[in-house]
Structures are given as structure tokens and as C-alpha cells.
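QA checklist item 7 of 12: single-chain prediction sanity check.
[x] sequence parsed
[x] length recorded as 234
[x] structure emitted
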Amino acid sequence: MSLSFYDAAIVAGIAATVIFLVVRVKKGGIPGLYTKSIASFCFIATALAATNKNSTFIGYASLIIFGLVMGMLGDIWLDLKWIQLESKDSYLYSGFISFLVGHLFYISAVYLYSPWTALSFAAAVAGAVVIAVIATLMEKPLKMNYGKFKTILFLYSLVLAFTVTSSVVTAIITRGETVWVVMSVGAVLFLLSDLVLSGIYFGEGKNTPANVVVNHVLYYMAQFIMASTIFFIK
């Protein structure tokens, strides 16, 4: 049986991610940036392929694709942080902002295409605030130093957490509608990925090959799952 464009995009994405991880751990630098960009392009290709299979919800698909594009840009900025050290702070800020905007697209997709209520919205906001505050307060207990990035980290944590809580609450009120369950899984994986990334960036002795691999495996799983929600929206 021949592979569809959607299946081929996922297979290519897995292969590209594995190649990137090998290059990132062994070489890093410009080769790591190039291979990471290719892997990130693959989750956009997956979203386009999913749109081709389920073209009814173009608006939803567009929001997810815009979010993925911002994710790819964030990937590039964050890798440039390790390459052009004289501008590392600017690239780090750019990365955070790109991912923050990407999550705003994901959140918009939830609230424009689901039967949310004032109560479910309030519950999602409250949950996001709690998660963001806990993440900020755990700086010292986890032996991290956010320094001048504390404000942008709080804002990013708040928006990321809102992606998680919006997806989960929506999955609950729709009684497990597939698209929102899938998005919830992707959002939680994104959150776990960024928890590992925070240790790499702001912790001592945590920038290890093992943590780099775990971070990126969780991240690419999250983005490919986000892309795949287009296939499940009904």
C-alpha cells in the first residue's frame, strides 16, 4: 500500500528529527541549525498534508500552520543563540516571542472552533495563571537563574500554560472529542519539553546531550501532534 502525502510527511519528519539529533549532539553549530530547520519544516509539511486530507476547516488549519511557522522561526532563533554568542540574548528573546505568538495561534484555533463557555474559559485562565506562577516560584528550588529573562519567561509560561489548559478543558467539555484530546497531548508534551529546556538554559550542569535529546524529542512530538490536529478537526 502506497504512502499518502500525510504519511510520507510524518515518516520524513521522524527521519529528519533523528538526523538532526545526531548532528546536534555530535557537531552542533551551523550543521545543527540546517538539520533542525529541515526537521521543523517537516512538521509544517505534515500540517499541509493534513489540510489536503481534511480541507473543510481551512480557517482552523491556517491558524495551526501559522503557529507551526512561528515555531520554526523560534527554532532558528534559539539555535542562532549558540552560534552568534555576541547576540545570544537578542536571539533568546526572539525565540521566546516567536513561540509565544505561535501559542496564541494555537489558542485562537481552540476558541474559534470549539463550543467553549464563559466557565470553561475562566477555568482555563485560572489554571494557566497557577501553572505560570508555580513555574516562576520554582526558580530557586530547581536551582535555576532566570535573571533578566524572568519577565518574558513568565509571559511565555502563561501563554504556553493557557494552550495546555484551554485544550484540556475543551477536551473535557466536548466529552473527549478527538481533536481536542490530540491537541491536549501535544500541548502537554510542549510544556514538558520547555521544562527540560529551562533547565538547559537556566540551570547549572544541565546542558547535557541526554537533556538535549529529551528536550527535542518531546518538542518534535508536540509539534507533529499539533500539525496532526488538522486531520482530526470535524
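[x] summary fact logged: The chain has one domain: 5-232.
[ ] second reviewer sign-off
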